[in-house]
Amino acid sequence: MLQSLEITATLTVPESPFHNLHWSGRLELSIDCFICERTGRTTLLEKGAERAVCSGSGRDGKHYAAARISAFDRGTAGGEIRLGTVVDFWWAPFHDAKRDAAATVLTRYPWVRHHLDYYCPESMESGTFSDQTNFVRPSPVSCQHCSVPIAESREAPRFRLLA
Question: Hey, what long-range contacts does 21-24 have (CB within 8 A, 24 or more apart)?
């Protein structure tokens, strides 16, 4: 059955200097994969791709997964950037024999990593960083070129099952 998961992450950003912080269009998400029948698989999703890549397990390795980013929204207000992503994925019940656990629609320990890009106005170079669920908060990020603070994650991304 088709499921939809909304993921919301919020970053606090200083007013200046402006580093053109933006989502790179990639995220990694833990879902229970009915193809390899393993729970908590890290799945790589890219904006615009019609399918994702599951990290797989054992000798089978990576494989395609029936998941995609179906919507993305970026909002700014009061010194914060909000990244809202909706992921559609196919799910079917199964039993993970290796972990002796039944699959669930929203995996037992949901995890996500947003990949972000920015542009340093001082060095005129781009940089990257990520924000993920299991970081210790607050989690400040500084520009790798000029060392100026560019963002801070004060709370873990939130998950909401839509369907």
Answer: 21/81, 21/116, 21/117, 21/118, 21/150, 21/151, 22/74, 22/116, 22/117, 22/118, 23/72, 23/74, 23/83, 23/114, 23/115, 23/116, 23/117, 24/115, 24/116, 24/117, 24/128
